[in-house]
Design goal:
Layout (H helix, E strand, L loop, with lengths): L2 H31 L4 E10 L10 H17 L3 H11 L5 H4 L3 E4 L6 E8 L2 H17 L7 H38 L3 H36 L5 E5 L6 E2 L5 H26 L6 H8 L3 E6 L21 H13 L9 E6 L7 H14 L4 E5 L7 H4 L8 H4 L21 H13 E3 L5 E4 L17 H10 L5 E5 L8 H9 L2 E7 L5 H13 L4 E9 L20 H8 L1 H5 L19
Parallel strand pairs: 6-13, 7-11, 7-12, 8-10, 8-11, 12-13
Antiparallel strand pairs: 1-3, 1-4, 1-5, 2-3, 9-10
């Protein structure tokens, strides 16, 4: 794919790329604004009882770390989660709670971290703590009833012995005070000393018993596969889920741009329409006679698309002058020139092109007759806002008499009936326009059973009348689409006209244009060239058509017309057809 083609695509679809980026970013911003806060709470659980040991075993620590990885999976089991729902009275199912609870093991320590996410901070805290408790309750790490009873008994004995030791120490202090007060009384001191030794023996025995019960309790509690909550969730900081707003917006905009570019390339890949003059030449091997920019807005009425609504210095006017230059040479001015304008399919702008080409020629001094030869969907009368009561359909229903320009100067009483009938029919069918030098023959009344123009052999006789009686330089025929009806090629053969194919940029498919050319070739009619219509600014091949332009300017044509003997003979002194010839075609 050429760089110029990519640039053209970018210019054509730039609005879509920007729109895709804006839509992507806008959706992200809107969803972010409406997104609720999520609160996170976490509870820490220690695996193993080694923490209470004065000399913990390394193997116990490593085993606890391995077990923590197992308990990560157990946290999200239905048994644990259902216990959380039942205990807290949550209005949700296990499948709804599961994505809200996350367990993990941070690093090497045998510590399990349980996180809960919710849009309410208190509920997040309760879920995290209860999930930890349910994990402990539903795991094989709990003490057996006997072990728990042993621990409870040890606690009771340790508490009782501690009270005995405390009481004995108080009595010991009292005895010491009494011994100090008795002085050297041997008998009294001897009795107090004996009591003192008994209390000391009692304290020592109690201390020994406390140590024994503590050892028993520690032995029961110290297990490798044991869990204990070491940090409950007490707060739940909030955050917005997903990446940050700026990152999300940029990412969404880029995603929109990428999708737009992919779509554009896909559309361009399957689109085989003719878009540029280079495409037209490569497809049809025909010269591009003119590239016509888009006229007005979509949906504008036909009269607004007439060239007279545009400045003579506009690009549109210049494009039609170039088209005229490429179609009419100085050598053509002394001949009976006829042009057939058609297109492959309907809606490609052939009627507007024919009308504006006729206007351009008329403004440059040529006597022009525009004939609406489309008897199915005529448009010329709408473009020029003319009545369509009489037209080409009425003309071709009769054979014209052989008359010349001298016959038109005779009084009606000196004309034969055939000549008078012919002139009367011309008077009814040929209409003037608000543009000097331009006359129009509309299609005439259209019915469901309208006959094709190509079925009448009288057309060739009328073309001679147009040139020699009306004194026109160029007759333009607006014919039906050539792939819909065969009128264009047949009319071109009958009147020996040059045929021009109008294709719409970005709409006319290459295969349709090729079929149109082939159809003309089968009837022995050659296309003189292509008019690329409704060309967007980004599809213009600057300078591409310069090789087709003749070496003269349209302004020079006015002087040529005045000085040529052939045309001088066909005009009256004021340069128009004699008023007597066509009463309704005299210039206003």
């Amino acid at each position: 794919m050429e760089v110029s083609h990519l640039i053209r695509l970018f210019r054509k679809w730039f609005w879509l790329i920007i729109l895709a980026a804006a839509v992507g970013a806008g959706i992200t911003i809107l969803t972010s604004v409406n997104r609720t806060f999520t609160y996170q709470a976490q509870t820490k659980v220690l695996i193993g009882g080694f923490i209470g040991s004065s000399n913990p075993n390394r193997g116990e620590i490593e085993t606890g770390a391995v077990l923590a990885e197992t308990y990560v999976e157990i946290v999200n089991t239905p048994l644990v989660l259902q216990g959380v729902i039942d205990t807290l009275g949550l209005d949700m199912t296990v499948s709804e709670l599961k994505p809200l609870v996350l367990a993990g093991k941070p690093g090497d320590p045998p510590i399990l971290v349980i996180q809960a996410f919710y849009n309410d901070p208190e509920t997040a805290i309760r879920i995290a703590n209860e999930a930890a408790r349910q994990l402990i309750l539903n795991s094989p790490t709990n003490l057996t009833p006997a072990q728990q009873a042993q621990i409870d008994l040890s606690d009771e004995q340790i508490n009782a012995l501690n009270e005995q030791v405390q009481d004995a120490r108080l009595e010991l202090e009292a005895i010491d005070e009494r011994m100090n007060a008795a002085g050297e009384s041997t008998a009294q001191n001897s009795a107090l000393a004996q009591q003192r030794r008994a209390l000391i023996d009692q304290i020592n025995q109690a201390t020994t018993n406390i140590a024994q019960f503590s050892a028993i309790k520690a032995g029961v509690e110290q297990q490798t596969n044991r869990m204990e909550i070491i940090e409950e969730a007490t707060e739940a900081p909030f955050f917005r889920t997903g990446p940050g707003l700026l990152e999300s917006t940029v990412l969404s905009a880029l995603t929109g741009v990428v999708l737009a570019i992919v779509g554009i390339l896909a559309i361009d890949y399957v689109d085989n329409s003719i878009k540029t003059s280079k495409d037209a030449t490569a497809t049809l091997s025909l010269p591009v006679l003119g590239t016509i920019p888009t006229l007005g807005k979509r949906g504008d009425p036909y009269p607004k698309k007439l060239l007279t609504n545009w400045s003579s210095r506009s690009a549109v006017a210049e494009s039609y002058r170039t088209l005229q230059t490429n179609l009419i040479s100085p050598a053509d001015l002394g001949e009976d020139k006829a042009l057939v304008i058609t297109s492959p399919n309907e809606g490609e702008g052939k009627s507007v092109t024919a009308a504006n080409l006729a206007v351009t020629m008329a403004l440059n001094g040529l006597q022009v007759l525009l004939v609406d030869a489309d008897l199915v969907q005529p448009r010329i009368h709408e473009i020029f806002q003319l009545d369509n009561e009489y037209g080409i359909k009425n003309l071709i229903s009769m054979t014209p008499s052989e008359i010349d320009s001298e016959d038109t100067l005779k009084p009606a009483t000196q004309m034969d009936a055939g000549a008078q009938k012919t002139l009367n029919m011309l008077n009814m069918c040929v209409k003037t326009t608000h543009i000097e030098n331009l006359r129009v023959i509309t299609s005439g009344p259209i019915t469901e059973t309208s006959t094709h123009l190509s079925e009448y052999s009288t057309l060739q006789g009328w073309i001679e009348v147009f040139h020699h009686v009306l004194g026109v330089d160029v007759v333009l025929f607006d014919t039906p689409p050539c792939l819909v009806m065969s009128d264009a090629s047949i009319v071109a053969s009958m009147v020996h006209a040059d045929c021009v194919l109008v294709v719409q940029s970005g709409r006319t498919r290459s295969d349709a244009a090729v079929r149109a050319k082939t159809q003309f070739a089968h009837t022995g009619v050659e296309l003189v060239g292509v008019v690329l219509n409704r060309v967007k600014a980004y599809d213009v091949d600057h300078g591409y058509n310069s090789g087709y332009v003749k070496n003269y300017q349209p302004a020079d044509m006015r002087e040529m017309l005045i000085n040529m003997p052939y045309n001088a003979e066909r005009r009256s002194a004021n340069g128009t057809v004699p008023e007597r010839t066509l009463k309704n075609t005299s210039d206003e």
